[in-house]
Design brief:
Length: 327
């Protein structure tokens, strides 16, 4: 096996998303030696997804000038729900799969052990070990994109709870009787503060008044985080108002969680956060602080995630490496 930087062989980290797959070959010092990226054939089912993932991994290996036999393990961050112990995706809202044995299938193809874990948890763990929350032991990580995912870390360990599904912060209710959420409930943080929620409100607004961004969404079929940020920069009134509203509800939810969990740091990432940056973080923090009663000296930090799109690949590689360490 090829020795990675800092000792130990390289491993593979894969970020499986509903729209794209990203793979990285990661050295022992967590440097990404090669990358691959493909569109996810989400509608085509398990076999096509596995094949595309292998193409993506081979692309990353080629860039790193390595071959499959040079790596010791692989980790995958995947949307769920999962049976993480068995490496099985039970089903997915965004991919046409059911009881997909991704871990065993990928392990067979690569000839190395594979660890599959929840995508948001993987990203949160990446930020905890290598990114914005490095050096802390009690962390809330929130990722705002199409949905809102979270990862809770206490005493240096991910909180999985009795069902190993804990950490679904997007489905904390922040407005009783509020808008319907994808989960079936009403008024969840995700239904008020995700990109989907902002997009729905903008489209609705554009039917009543001048809202260029709402019209753009209807033309393109979806809201891009970059377009949202541009509209805010251009002081598009409706866009500014909706971002403020979303930030308020995200902060309200996070403030409640801070009261319950008492983290040292709250890391906020995801596509919407990356695009809107510090002004958005400031609004979220202000709304959260209004709720927080457990931090009179304001020692709890609110920060932007720092790993960006690499959080998933790096987090997945960490799980792969830890699996090796623990046999
Ligand atoms: Zn929900």
């Amino acid at each position: 096996m090829a020795e990675g930087h800092g000792g130990g062989p390289p491993v593979i980290g894969v970020d499986l998303g509903g729209t794209k797959i990203m793979a990285g070959v990661v050295a022992a010092d967590h440097k990404i030696l090669g990358r691959g990226k493909r569109n996810t054939p989400a509608k085509e089912g398990a076999e096509a997804i596995l094949k595309t993932m292998l193409d993506c991994i081979d692309e990353a290996l080629a860039e790193a000038r390595l071959s499959r036999s040079d790596v010791a393990a692989a980790g995958v961050g995947s949307p769920g729900p999962l049976d993480a112990d068995a490496g099985v995706i039970l089903y997915s809202a965004n991919m046409n799969v059911k009881n997909f044995a991704l871990g065993p299938d990928l392990s067979k193809a690569l000839g190395v052990p594979v660890k599959v874990n929840n995508d948001v948890r993987v990203g949160g763990y990446g930020e905890f070990m290598l990114g914005a929350a490095r050096g802390y032991s009690d962390v809330i990580a929130a990722f705002v994109g199409t949905g809102i995912g979270g990862c809770l870390i206490q005493g240096g360990r991910i909180v999985g709870g009795s069902t190993n599904n804990a950490g679904e912060i997007g489905h904390v209710v922040v407005k009783a009787g509020g808008p319907r959420c994808g989960c079936g409930s009403k008024g969840c943080m995700e239904a008020l503060a995700s990109k989907t929620a902002i997009s729905n409100r903008l489209v609705k607004a554009s039917k009543k008044r001048d809202c260029p961004l709402g019209e753009k969404i209807q033309r393109k079929g979806r809201l891009k985080s970059g377009d949202l940020a541009e509209a805010v920069r251009n002081k598009d009134e409706v866009a500014v108002r909706e971002v403020e509203r979303a930030a308020f509800y995200l902060g309200t939810g996070l403030g409640g969680l801070v009261n319950v969990f008492g983290p040292q740091i709250v890391v906020i990432g995801g596509g919407v956060t990356q695009a809107l940056g510090q002004p958005y973080l400031d609004m979220v923090t202000e709304a959260a602080r209004r709720q927080i009663i457990t931090d009179p000296n304001r020692t709890i930090k609110f920060v932007l995630a720092t790993l960006g799109d690499d959080a998933g690949v790096l987090g997945a590689s960490l799980f792969a490496r830890e699996m090796l360490a623990h046999g």
